[in-house]
Amino acid sequence: MGADSLQTYISSAEGASLVAFCEDCELQAIPIPEEVTMADIYICLLLQLLAENKITRAEIAAQRATRGLSAHQVTAEVTAVLQLVKAIASRDYAAINAAFSTLSTQLRPVFSELERRLCVRYRQQQLALIAEAYVQVRVPNTAVLLGTSVEENKQAQTLGWTYDAATDILFPVTASPAVQPVAASDIKEQLKQLSEYVVHLEI
Questions:
Q1: Which part of the chain is the CSN8/PSMD8/EIF3K domain (predicted)?
Q2: Whether this model's pTM surpasses 0.85
């Protein structure tokens, strides 16, 4: 087995299998494939857990990675992933956007599919939170919350949202996103922090 075996798990889009594979490698229950490093295993594990919205598990895995990897194994790529875990766990929207930006410049192509899935999942969840919290929101604010461009957010009309060009305001429509359900307590806390952040943007 070589690097191709890891790519097979990534390409399969079977998250549970990828997580199980990475954790088995971490526990040395199976040999790590040739040309694959332990840092690669942790990168895959963390990105997949984040993509599945398993934030607590990602935090714990990040702690294991920090303890288990030697200094020379903690590359800029690993650091970028760890920073993203920290930012998402703390729900620091500015830090999340910065971490995504850094990640896109540091990740090797082999991990691009995992990054894409995570970006899609994260933005779906943020759109759902915005729709739940607001009857209207300015496009620039939505762009900051999602880490996307203003022009991209105007395309939210494709989700059934209404865009008023005169005021540059979006009118969200609540929908059921195709993401893993979040506990009610977590939703309440996220809505609170989202509201506080939008208020901060308006100041």
A1: 38-172
A2: no
CA 164 to chain centre: 29
Give the Å distances, CA to CA, from 49 to 1, 43, 58, 94.
24, 10, 6, 21
SS3 121: helix
Q: Tell me how many helices (H) and strands (E) the chain has.
A: 10, 3
Residue 145 near residue 191 (C-beta atoms within 8 A): no
Picking from 123, 134, 133, 95, the residue whose alpha carbon sits closest to that of residue 179 is 123
Cα 71 from chain centre: 25
Cβ-proximal residues to 137 (8 Å cutoff; 6+ apart), any chain: 130, 169, 170, 172, 198
Please determine, for residue 2, whether its predicted confidence score (pLDDT) is greater than 60: no
What structural domains and CATH numbers belong to the chain? Answer: 3-118 (no CATH), 120-202 (1.10.10)
Residues near 10 by beta carbon (within 8 Å), at least 6 away in sequence:
18, 44, 110, 111, 113, 114
Q: What is the mean pLDDT of residues 162-178?
A: 75
Taking the C-alpha atoms of residue 193 and residue 2, their distance in angstroms, rounded to an integer, is: 44
Per DSSP, which regions of 6-136 are E strands?
Answer: none
How would you list the strands of the sheet with 169-171, edge to edge?
137-138, 169-171, 162-164
Listing DSSP states for 36-99 in one string gives: --HHHHHHHHHHHHHHTT-HHHHHHHHHHHHHHS-GGG--HHHHHHHHHHHHHHHT-HHHHHHH
The whole-number pLDDT of residue 127 equals 78
Instruction: List the beta bridge partners of residue 137.
Output: 170
